[in-house]
Every structure is written in C-alpha cells, then in structure tokens.
Amino acid sequence: MAARSSQPEKKPNFFKQLKSLFDFTKDVFPWLLWALIGILIVGIWVGILIGFLLPPVAVWSIVLWGFTGLLFGILAALMVMTRLSTKAMYQKIDGRPGATGHILSTALGRSWQASDTPVGVNPKTQEAVYRAVGRGGVAIVGEGSRGRLTRLINEEKSKVTRVASGVPVTVLYVGHGDGDVAIADLAKTIKKLPKAINRATQSAVIKRIDSVSQSLASLPIPKGIDPLRARAPRPR
C-alpha cells in the first residue's frame, strides 16, 4: 500500500498577505495607494533633511539618512494601512446580520467571554441578541430594531438577573440611532465598563447562565460573519 503523502499546507507568503491586505483596504479607501506613496516620499525627504543638518555633511551621509527615512516611511505606511484596514472591515460588516457576534467573539480579549452565536433571535427578521460576560458584569447586545428586540432583550435580562443576582447587567444596541453604539465602537464600549466582579465570580456566572440557557440549535441563527470575508487579512 502506497504511503500517504502528508505535505504541509503552504501558507501565503508575506508579500501575498500584504497584497491581500492592500486590496481589501483599497476597496473602501480608493486613495490608499497615493497616501502610501506620499508617506514614503515624506519619509525619504525627512531622512535627506536630517542628512543635511547633521555634520559631517557628505554624500554618503545624505544617502544613508535618505535610506533610513525610506525604512521609517515603509514602517509608517504599514501602520497606516493596518489601521485603515480595520476601519474598512468595520464599514464592510456594518449592518450585516452576525456582525455583532463576530466582534464580540474576536475583539473583546481575555477579560470577556462571548460567542458569535446569538442567545436570542427573531427568525423572520434575523434580529438577534448576544451576550458577553466579563469583569464588567454581563453585557446584553441587541442587533436590529429596538422595538422588535424588546421582548428578546427583556427575556435575556430576566434570565441573567435570576441566576446572577447582584451582577451588573448592561444593555447595548448596535446601530446609528440615538443611544446606539456603532459596530466600530462596540468592543471599546464594553471594555470600558467598570470592573465589578472578579474572575472566580465571572466563571461562576458563566456556568449558571449556561446551565439555564435553552438550546437554539433548531433555529435559523445567523452565525458570526466569516472572518475570511469580513476581516482584513493581516501580514505575518
């Protein structure tokens, strides 16, 4: 019997990842190329200027400083493109079902626990409610119209307060209306909640809530957005 070939999957190299990041960001910011070129030019000229100002003034010194300025320009350009790619990602997923779950499950860090699967959902409208538990208590996040989410929000809040009495519960709505939180500010808003419980209490709250949560596997729940399509690829 022939031996099965086990060739490791090839990962895209740095330049391919960089190109993917550039293409992803350029879809939202068409002027990206000119901005990056401008940053490189400014970096070179700053380096050349330093070469003229610092003695000894010589050709080799000016060339060396110009090259140094180019390197710093490349670094600055990568930083700008990475920051813009994050903004592009938020713009692309804004308003899409599952965007809230994607952010909660990937952007809150270790201090919070959340899933990209909603804890409550309206199968007809795809409006959903998500939950995150962390040092700041419990955050219940609604994705959709406030009016149609009232019942789902109240049910989840009642369930949490019943099993986690004394733990702060914060209700947030993702959107662009008065009092809503933009999808780009959601993770930052939750992280800013004041610490109210310790890690041991957090773990206990998670277990209690999970124990009373009903399975939603039979409902057409909008999963979190596919990271490969929604999230900007980052160069390694």
Mean model confidence by pLDDT: 85
- The gyration radius over C-alpha positions equals 24 Å
SS element count, helices: 8
Could you give the order of the helices and strands? HHHHEEEEHEHHH
Roughly what percent helix? Answer: 40-55%
Give a quick precis of the structure.
It contains eight helices and five strands, in the order H-H-H-H-E-E-E-E-H-E-H-H-H.
Task: Give short descriptive properties of this protein.
11% strand, elongated, five-stranded mixed sheet, 5 strands, disordered N terminus, single chain, alpha+beta, 236 residues
Map the helices and strands.
Elements: H1 14-26, H2 32-53, H3 59-93, H4 99-106, E1 112-114, E2 120-121, E3 128-134, E4 137-143, H5 146-163, E5 169-174, H6 186-191, H7 199-212, H8 227-230
Parallel strand pairs: 4-5
Antiparallel strand pairs: 1-3, 2-3, 3-4
Describe the structure.
The chain has 236 residues and is of the alpha+beta class. It has helices spanning 14-26, 32-53, 59-93, 99-106, 146-163, 186-191, 199-212, 227-230, and strands spanning 112-114, 120-121, 128-134, 137-143, 169-174. Strands 1, 2, 3, 4 and 5 form a five-stranded mixed β-sheet that branches.
